[in-house]
Structure formats: structure tokens, C-alpha cells
Amino acid sequence: MSLLSVDRLCIGPVDSAAAPIVDGLSFTLSRGDSLAIVGESGSGKTQAVLSLLGLQGAGLRVSGSARFDGIELIGARDSMLDVVRGTRIGMVFQDPASSLNPYLTVGMQIGESLEVHRGLSRAESHRVALRLLDAVRVADAARRLLQYPHELSGGMRQRVMLAAALACRPELLIADEPTTALDATVQRQLITLLRELQRDFALSLLLITHDLGVVGELCTRTLVMYAGRVMEEGDSERLLRAPTHPYTQALLRARPRLDTDPDAPMFAIAGSLTRAEISPLACCFAPRCEHAVDLCYRLRPPPESVADGVRHCHRRPEDIATAPG
């Protein structure tokens, strides 16, 4: 059963004819399932999820539909969103250093949502916050509750954000780049923790990331975005093994590998994401695509069903799996 259903979501400046930040995003997320939205910086993935909670930036217009368990989120009043935000949907923001209040202790920040949304007393919220820190594997939790964010490491702050997001036992957890800026060991610990939390709390997980290595370990399905549009979506294992879109192929080729010559130059996608060069009538990736043909510059590719999802590309999968051109 679908928990979250997004249909033709568009986000763009209110007073500008500039290219939209998000252009026709559609996906569904079932209860207990996990979906990763992948793309390079500027692809629109973070703005897309912020708009679901009414947190998009000022001066942006949002259209389309996003239904959470039957509740329409787009255009909803703040009073309606307050019923959902922090209670049924929890979010871990991209940068815990700027998301946590430097003037409040860890215990006060976790306890705030418990007091506001669940009506707990200060003493009760303290006890629940202690259990939550234990659940996210924070050692010496009683002492950490009394500390301020600047006294914690990056990995510890990320765990505190997780504890705060889980305080009201949400049905959906949105995690925006949760492993960014963490060293490899802490990343591994956090990935394991997210897997365990999804199981223990019966969570649906919406993961925002540019790290394809994280995707395969956390999410059953993956959606790849570029310049605000969907390039392809499908089963994560299949998509990472046999992508059907040139952009996904390029992302995978750009990953560092242990079996390559360390002195060889790394693969890089030609050009850069420049929205001013993107035509609304054409494929947005065509200017950087080594497989592009004339049709790609003239016509926006329609959605094409594949065995486990959808792709937006004029070229056949078997053509792009061989040689460019």
C-alpha cells in the first residue's frame, strides 16, 4: 500500500521564467519500503523533499500533488502540516551542525517535540530522550543529554538528529545526505544504524544522496534526478548493475574504484549542470551526454516503462550499453 505518492511535482521561482528547480517529479513509496533519490548537487532533490513539508525556500512556487496516507501536502495549511511534520514524518537535515540549536542542550532539543506533539512533561521527555539516544547507539547517553552540539563530533550530532527525528515514532523518515562529511568508518556505522532503525521502528525511508555506494545498502528502489527531472527509476540492485540511462551510467563510471590504476585520470562527466542551457522541449542531459543524437536536442523523452520501473531516454538500453554516438 502506498504511503507517499508524488505526482508531477514542479518547483520554480514565482516571478521568473527561469528553468524550474523540480520539473514533473513523480514517484510512490510503499509502507515499510525505501527509496533513494540520487543526483549531483543542483539536481533539485533536496528542494523536492523540503516542499513536501512546506519548507521550500521563499519566492518559490510549488505545484502538483504529494499525498501522504491520503493527506494532500502541497498547498496544505500550516496547521495541517503541523499534524504531520515531526510526528508522522521525521526528517534528518543535511547539515546537523546548522540544524541543531547551539544554545540548547541535546536533551532539550530531543525533548521539545515530545513535549509539543505528545504532551509529555519535562521529566517524561527526558526519560524518552535517554531511550532514544540509546536506540541510536550513543554511548554515555545520560551525559550526552546535558551537552551542547558543539561538544559532539559530526557523527554524534548526526545520531542526535536521528534521535530527534524518531522521537514521535514517525511512519516516514526522510534523510537528506546523512553520510556526507563523515569519515568512512562513521559512514559505515551510520548505514548499519539506519538499516536497524528502519527494521526496529517499521519505517519507510526516503533517502536523498549523491553517493551511489550508500544506495545499494539502504534502499530497495532508486530514482535518479538531473536538472529537476527524473532520468530513471527502478530496483536498486538492477539499476546499479545495469543502468538504462546514460546519466546513471556516467555517475557509476565517475565513482572511484579499487581495481583501477591509481595514476589513471578519473572519469568525469563533460561540462556542468547549467540550467540556462536547458530547453524545456529537449532532453536536459543532452548537452553533456556522449550518447546524444539529434532527436535528444529537439524532443523531451517521454517516460518509458522498463521491467522494474521507468526511464526517460530516446536511446535504447542496448544502444547505450555499447558505444557512444
Automatic annotation (TrEMBL):
SUPFAM superfamilies: P-loop containing nucleoside triphosphate hydrolases (SSF52540). PROSITE patterns: ABC_TRANSPORTER_1, ABC_TRANSPORTER_2. This is ABC transporter ATP-binding protein. Belongs to the ABC transporter superfamily. Keywords: ATP-binding, Cell membrane, Membrane, Nucleotide-binding, Transport. It is found in: Cell inner membrane. It is a peripheral membrane protein. GO terms for biological process: peptide transport; transmembrane transport. Residues 1-252 form the ABC transporter domain. It comes from Solimonas terrae. The lineage of its organism: Bacteria, Pseudomonadati, Pseudomonadota, Gammaproteobacteria, Nevskiales. GO terms for molecular function: ATP binding; ATP hydrolysis activity. Pfam families: ABC_tran, oligo_HPY. Its main location: membrane. GO terms for cellular component: plasma membrane.
